[in-house]
Amino acid sequence: MKLQTQLLGLFLLVLGCTDKNELPAPVNEKSSVSFSLTTIHTNESADTIEIFINLDQKLQSAATLDIALSGSAFYGFDYVTVPEAVEDELQLSIAAGAQTASIKVIPIEDDLFDGEKSIRLNLINPSSNLILGTKKTLSLKIADVDEQPTEQEVVMIEYVTHQGQMLENETSGYEVLLTLSAEVAHTELVFIEVQSDNYEYGIDYFTNPMTIDGTLRLDVLPGETSVSFMLFPINSNVVNGTREITFYLSDVSDGLAVGSEHVFTLVVEDDDDQSSIIHPINELRQQLDLHYGSWFITGDYFIEGVITSAGNVVNNQTVYIQDETGGIMLIFNGPGLHAMGTKVRLNLRHAIGEMVDFQKGIVGIEDREGVTLGTGIIVAPIEIDLQLYYTGAYQGMRVKLVNLTLTENTNQAKWLGSRRFHGPDGRYINITTNPTAQFKDFFVPTRAMNIIGIAGGNSELLPQTVVDFAFYE
Questions:
Q1: What is the sign, positive or negative, of the torsion defined by CA atoms of 410, 416, 418, 421?
Q2: Strand locations in 95-136, DSSP E?
Q3: Residue 3: exposed, middle, or buried by beta-carbon count in 10 A (0-12, 13-18, 19+)?
Q4: Are 422 and 402 spatial neighbours (Cβ–Cβ below 8 Å)?
Q5: Is the overall model pTM greater than 0.90, yes or no?
Q6: Residue 127 — left, alpha, or beta (φ > 0 → left; ψ -120 to 50 → alpha)?
Q7: How far is CA 245 from the centre of its chain?
Q8: How far apart, in whole angstroms, are the C-alpha atoms of residue 174 and residue 234?
Q9: pLDDT tens figures, 224-275
Q10: Could you say which of 299, 377, 408, 457 would form a disulfide bridge with 359 (CB–CB 3.0 to 4.6 Å)?
Q11: d(CA 6, CA 259)
Q12: Which residues of 384-408 are buried (b: 16+ CB within 10 A; e: fewer)?
């Protein structure tokens, strides 16, 4: 008992002598992040400005932080940043263990007196292990180093006309002209805002000079009385109808003023003709019969249909196409360009209709692109039996045959090649798999199956994807 009392006293003595300053400091889960400064002054001829972001403690794990850019300075015209900004925002990655990070701002000297410009940087969107500190905004002032021009009469600038028109296939481009009321004595800047609801830059068209964040910049040089830019449409070979793009004179430098014709609209008409006579595929097949299996198509002959093949064909120049009336094999002069499920209009002019591998086909088609009318279209197979198959009425079409059984007594056979199956009535069908088929190395089941495919020639069926196979229930 005496020993227990002594130990208890010793424990209390040690506890009482512990210095609170020796206890480990608590670690905050989040680091506070702030700019090191709130204002920076520089000029447009200065070298790179490095802007530091500080944390109140080292990061326990990696973090990210966005910086929003605003102000009178134009990104891409007056300055750029590292890392690069996208739509006036840049993302900063901070490694674990770091207590500081930085970005770089690079002014662009333009040899034009356009006054002081400013950039406002705001810290936003901190990751979950960061919180924004008190210095979350920084103002960067960029002074102009160019000589201020002497007073001169303000020059008016405006479009020559308010509207233009062109076809989508005019790849030589369209020149948009702006005129000035007098010569300019010094280099002046013009900023044009580009807008369109259904015409996408880089996909449907591009300009020279190019746009940055939807704005096009033109430099008006001393002595000039006009300036222009070019628009180049991209021919899509897709029926999109008529579309419009509008160019607004949104801003000019101090030596210019915007005139009354400050809006220009360019109408781009679709060149993909929708009025051509479309021949149904069953008529095309009948023409081969009328020409005894060999028919040179001399003039325009348009068909429309959905591509039903997806690789299980003899080569990359061959596809199958189907409409509401029938299907047929097409062989182009080069690789086929349309994926399965694409609805397309094709001109068969100068092609030849003939029998190919015991089936009707069109050979030597020059119009590989055609006009795309839709994508992702599913052509439902027609369920038939082998008796209907052998009538030839479904050749070139997607069909479904049910309750087929592998005739060969082969274990572990793969699909590649030709596999003979028979139906309940004893008739047989060859399931043909080319080396380009995605399922060529799959093993052939010995159970009865339902198989979807394109009815080809010489008693063959051409499945196209793995989903074309199912067990018969």
A1: positive
A2: 100-107, 117-124, 130-132
A3: exposed
A4: no
A5: no
A6: beta
A7: 20
A8: 12
A9: 999 999 999 988 777 777 889 999 999 999 889 999 999 999 999 877 655 5
A10: 457
A11: 99
A12: bebeebeeeebbbbbbbbbbbebee
